[in-house]
Fold each of these.
Amino acid sequence: MFKNTLKCLVKIDKNVHSRPNSNVAFIGLGQMGTRMVNNLIKHGKQPRVYDVVPSAVSSIKGAIPCSSAEEAVDGANIIITMLPNGQIVKDTVIGQKGILKKIGKNSLLLDSSTTGPQVARELYQAAKESSVRFLDAPVSGGVVGAQAGTLCFMVGGDEGDCKEVEPVLLHMGAKVLFCGDSGAGQITKLCNNLILGVTMIGTAEAMNLGVKLGLDPKLLSDVVNISTGRSWSSDTYNPVPGVMENVPSAKNYDGGFSVELIAKDLGLAGDAALSISAPVPLAAMSHQLFRTMITYGLGKKDFSVIYKFLEGKAVDN
Amino acid sequence: MFKNTLKCLVKIDKNVHSRPNSNVAFIGLGQMGTRMVNNLIKHGKQPRVYDVVPSAVSSIKGAIPCSSAEEAVDGANIIITMLPNGQIVKDTVIGQKGILKKIGKNSLLLDSSTTGPQVARELYQAAKESSVRFLDAPVSGGVVGAQAGTLCFMVGGDEGDCKEVEPVLLHMGAKVLFCGDSGAGQITKLCNNLILGVTMIGTAEAMNLGVKLGLDPKLLSDVVNISTGRSWSSDTYNPVPGVMENVPSAKNYDGGFSVELIAKDLGLAGDAALSISAPVPLAAMSHQLFRTMITYGLGKKDFSVIYKFLEGKAVDN
Amino acid sequence: MFKNTLKCLVKIDKNVHSRPNSNVAFIGLGQMGTRMVNNLIKHGKQPRVYDVVPSAVSSIKGAIPCSSAEEAVDGANIIITMLPNGQIVKDTVIGQKGILKKIGKNSLLLDSSTTGPQVARELYQAAKESSVRFLDAPVSGGVVGAQAGTLCFMVGGDEGDCKEVEPVLLHMGAKVLFCGDSGAGQITKLCNNLILGVTMIGTAEAMNLGVKLGLDPKLLSDVVNISTGRSWSSDTYNPVPGVMENVPSAKNYDGGFSVELIAKDLGLAGDAALSISAPVPLAAMSHQLFRTMITYGLGKKDFSVIYKFLEGKAVDN
Amino acid sequence: MFKNTLKCLVKIDKNVHSRPNSNVAFIGLGQMGTRMVNNLIKHGKQPRVYDVVPSAVSSIKGAIPCSSAEEAVDGANIIITMLPNGQIVKDTVIGQKGILKKIGKNSLLLDSSTTGPQVARELYQAAKESSVRFLDAPVSGGVVGAQAGTLCFMVGGDEGDCKEVEPVLLHMGAKVLFCGDSGAGQITKLCNNLILGVTMIGTAEAMNLGVKLGLDPKLLSDVVNISTGRSWSSDTYNPVPGVMENVPSAKNYDGGFSVELIAKDLGLAGDAALSISAPVPLAAMSHQLFRTMITYGLGKKDFSVIYKFLEGKAVDN
């Protein structure tokens, strides 16, 4: 049903300007949201911001601090949410004190949280009934990408709305990919991260095997990277300490994309698969492995720590 | 223990000439061997060839047909074997009628079969005791690479021997990668193919999930290919019919790298992992999935047929 | 938190009488519900019955047919629901036309559907706010147990309520097990069925392995049944045709406990595990295997058909 | 091919006497062998014993100590081996200093080691060529059963030979099960232990899930044990501390059947499955889980420690 081609792929022209008169509200100032807002400010925006944690609101310079979500959306015609999970997004938008009824007609509500397609479609429908336009626009790139303004937005909803909001998104990211109807952004992100989780574990298994059998990990990576085993997990984010610089495996697996987050995404992918009876055996097993690692206190580490877990050295202290 | 750097990486200068006085014997004229021999002949060699199937021997033009392995190695100083599995290699080299005792002192025996490291090291040792030099040199690239002369040789043994035989190998392939001590070629190949098997299944799971949820497979592939889910399995060998041309998924999964062969390699990788207690959970599960597919009559299809298997449409007729 | 002992274990005195003045309503007349209602009638009850399918209602002799759920609960002080899944139970009880507001104060609402603990606790809470008592009481025993009146009820909620409704339940089943606070009946059922699904597949793997290696399946089962591999799956419900009589494997895997239902229960167990970060690797893999079997058209067969699936003969026509 | 019925099932008449003139040799005096030999002595035998560890030989009272395997078999007409693995058995029997050529014609060689069917059949064949009769007779019951004389022997080979040696075996065990042709004892043991490994993990997953969700483990076990989840792993060897007495889970998982041994058996089962293309997905995953536990230093603990591993508390110190 999403027979679109990848139309607005890879925009990096940072000189694109958004409508000068767009008023942006931003709700959710965690690790990601704070950085995204700061990039909006850098590009001349003065967003209305809100978070349940007051200090998160007050610490941002150049924004208009608000003391409630309702206050934040007041007068805004673009509202962006960046929240921990689908339930919180639903509570925030369509809950008892939900912002939807406060949002002006024809405004654009864009959710960058990772929620799965079900929540996205539910919100799209609710928004439509309130004459509000809704886009699901989860991101990849993590905290590093949010900081650098190089996030990739995967967008589902109406293509015209995507085009319209694109200049604003490009203040925070490097790519805006229109993926199809409502929910398509969420599905695309889950599919990508399903592959990511599985491929990283496979790569870690092979690296651990090769190294234990005496191979030099750098040499093995070099060969894999010009062969059929090549992937982002081996050539850009290698899980073995010493093979690459500036990746989590070079920094005690701190920073990066946490085990908890990949586990969350694999869980959402599993739910989505369940809803349509699609078998995902390796994703299910990967989900279990990452969850076992959480049980062992590795939830906050970068997910490439699976290499250490397989090595038997991740859980000593 | 194999702390070498990847020295002889990516040689594509096809003008390199091997020693004019090298006499090559080639044993094993299956799908791979026949094509490799033909490329040797194209480059001016006249190899002595043998196979247990007489018609395989007689059908090659430009080679010296031999009626036994012993006859083939007579007078050869480079002997190449390309056989179905490790047991057959062992029988051929050190069995009761094994060729090792017929090979001249200081000759070079190179095995391009996929056998696992154990067999490679055993043969290296036996060869050494007979003053014969031995290299394990399994290949990637499959029948297509063998035909085109673009195979990649992963070599274990003594580096000087690798350098010496490299010109001959480059008649049959595009790359010669020295990986380390005896067995290192085998280990490298198994590690690469472990990743390959796991990544292909993960990619197929995500593609099936996305398509069943309404995404266009081409668009999903395009996004994945510029994202963290990118891999050879998605950007070069996509398993979904219609996404790419000239790959097995475009041709009813005929040709390519068979389910039987990836299952064999994952089995060897599992054995190697067992020998050193390295956990390989996803590889083990992938192995089981491919073996289940063999049980359902898909053993000869290209391994990307896992997409069809997950879709529930591979096993109807 | 459920530190109770198994107090009302195994009641089989069928002469126990329920309060003569109890008025029972029964909502949900599928395969299970119809048979349960018939057993109530046999024991002298005249339940008020409702189902969304009118013919299901009219075909029951001896009950009071109702044309809506609201009508069914009118005047009843014990209300039993037996519905396909948690969403339908929630819609029926607390949805827009939900029965909860029509149920008399202090009445007892008992849900025998398998819904998972979350739904049970939500309904318990909602019921409490309406001064209605709520028990979760999923059953094991299947269609056969429902027909014979030998179901096992696993009950969560307040123990006094369990005791009170026990005589009514024993008209439909042979055992009433009080498991603890609200949700405990659901959890107990999911835990039991998790083991069941995993053990059945493990048993089928071993039987298929042994038989393919030449063992007689009856002899192998006999040995397993007096050894450490013994389980209900091998000694009472053996998956290999010819080993036992009167089990689904003796009848082309028709009847019994369907692949769809065990897959549903493993899915609910997985959700519950997710909610508390408990790793369930084999359950997850079993879930995937059963779901793959559904993809291949085996969803309605008894779940012991996994034996045939592993054998490679389940999916031919 | 092994269409025998379970003829000699469950012999416990300990007054059965073996041929008074049988001379027994016993090779392999580890944890199992020493205890088995002591039971032979208790029943009036004076076996000729040997082990590669001299102190193991000298510490047995009432046996005839020998300084080599060859010396041990000298004059014996029943030779029993109990060794760590198939390779050692092969070395001992048909290796360069193998005992086979020293064993008298028509004597009976019985191997109680767990080796897999391949080794058993190889030895049967070799023995036959030397006019020696061979039985594979692996045991279940572990160190506890060896101590108490309650082992169960699973025997493959010629049924007459099984009958003949039965009285001697019943000095060391409580059951002698004739399973079929050569190798059938090994296959039977592997099949049983495959189920055992899978079922124990499934049981541990469910128990951990239930307990984390608030159920009392004793109550949950009681329900499972009268339901479809019942198995030896739950009703006889429960993995949760506090549920049963006198099982490893009650004693810090010391003693019992080690993780290393179940991993070994699952590995052999996997090899056997590979040889005939039988899919064993849960066994493969179980194998990986037990091997991961070895990596974390739990190899010597009883295999029911999987409960602690899933709980996330097995690997702290």
Amino acid sequence: MSIDIAQLERGIVKGDRRALSRAITLVESTRPDHRAMAAELVEALKGADGVDRQALRIGLSGTPGVGKSTFIEGFGGMLTGQGLRVAVLAVDPSSARSGGSILGDKTRMDRLSRDPNAFIRPSPSQTHLGGVGRRSREAVALCEAAGFDVVLIETVGVGQSETVVAEMSDLFVLLLAPAGGDELQGVKRGIMEIADIILINKADGDLKSAASRTCADYSGALRLLRKRPQDPEGFPKAMMVSALEDTGMQPAWGEMQALTKWRRENGHWDARRAAQARYWFGEEVRQGLLSQLATPEARAAMEELGAAVAEGRTTPAIAARELLERIGAGVWNG
Amino acid sequence: MSIDIAQLERGIVKGDRRALSRAITLVESTRPDHRAMAAELVEALKGADGVDRQALRIGLSGTPGVGKSTFIEGFGGMLTGQGLRVAVLAVDPSSARSGGSILGDKTRMDRLSRDPNAFIRPSPSQTHLGGVGRRSREAVALCEAAGFDVVLIETVGVGQSETVVAEMSDLFVLLLAPAGGDELQGVKRGIMEIADIILINKADGDLKSAASRTCADYSGALRLLRKRPQDPEGFPKAMMVSALEDTGMQPAWGEMQALTKWRRENGHWDARRAAQARYWFGEEVRQGLLSQLATPEARAAMEELGAAVAEGRTTPAIAARELLERIGAGVWNG
């Protein structure tokens, strides 16, 4: 594609959805010239038109089958109904492993995808975790610059994707299905620790009493966790929603707003955004250093020396020193 | 310390324990000159005296309280009683988080620590995971060169340490305590997938029937896992042992030997060692590239640009490009 950065910038600031789409495609590209342009675009948009545009970035995770698409359709529709503009992005670093489940699938969010105040972007098809995270963070920044009030960043409960999404979110919502109390342990401890609000979905019909028990179980479990400085009294909390019957959505949104207000007033919002910016800076630097292995010369040397190591002709440390010397990179320290 | 690599090499090959201890201290050092000497030593020992010395490397994991020290005392003592030489190393990348539990604690392995055919090395006090893993792998190579028949590599069930230990082990043993069936889910799925043998410890006294149930539960769970090419019929398997009553140790060792024999005969031993060597080569290279951030100049630039990013004066990608340019490293690709 031929790319005019200034034109893209103007389009995004005006809220032109086609410009936003094209810009996200640009930040998702792995071509070095595209990457350079993308970085310039994000930098330019940072201070565009002098307005401090900050969306509420909500990370949303849940295992397949929990009803994420239906929830987003209902929750997003409620927000646009209140005049808010909503963007939905997906981070799916493990598309190979999750068996091809598509996040941000527009066919499953039929109403929202036709809503003029909503923007849905399916997950990019890349598979490299570090890369996907960095690109998604920039896509979030583009949506923010485009004036969206809420950016929903959807992921599945597989591998490290929650941690990556938490590093680009202002608050993190875990969506769960009703279940017996014995399944409490199935939720990874790490996720419980980053969740701000746990929503028990499918609190309707036959599942209503199971949802109620699950909600009580998780409320109890959350009380056992150590208190975090970024939480006001009563948070993190578990609540029930029904995407199907469209109930519990407004209370959930109310709690998100209350939590956000408290964090803004107590300095936690800014502190978290600053810490996240530092984190992504470190990631960019680390990926930049590791990209020295991406040249054809480095790949060939990795292959040749890797074979020598595998066959026992040399040791990992000695071979690594030779590789770093050959590609003229790195300070070898064994 | 003043270091004579050739002397250390001769001492290790002769089985001199003081030489081995000093060499392990050398590979654990982070000083660049020590690192270079350590790499030379490991390389020199690789082909020392023309003998192909391969120890059986057994990774051993278990949460605190499961009775690891008592097990190692009993199991190690049984092996030395059969004329085998046994080394015990510890990998504890998370000493800060595990609340100061010491691995390879000699006071808890009183008999074994005084056994002339045993060598016990407590965990190094470093906290950097990548570093600890690489150093431990070299310590294993030193023990192998020193003629030990079995190297036990002990770790705790915290974080990523099992994966690191599995990457330097020929077989992996998970030690568990008897428990109700509902605690089955408490074991991380990832560990179940790398375990070759699960030992239910404390199968004695009042806990005997609980141990029997736990063993049956895990036997069932293991059968549900996908079969791996490196496993003969019946593996991975769960068995009961009692470190206290010293029962089940010989059957467990018999299974380890049977598994090892099958893997050796079917090419899996060599294939795994080759794959592990490649893995550690890659780790050495990655750590070498990232070590470009360890210079005072790089640290200062990280601090300065990190602050600019945190304050929103620039974006992570732009700041990363500037950092990589300043330290003259990396191929920036955003």
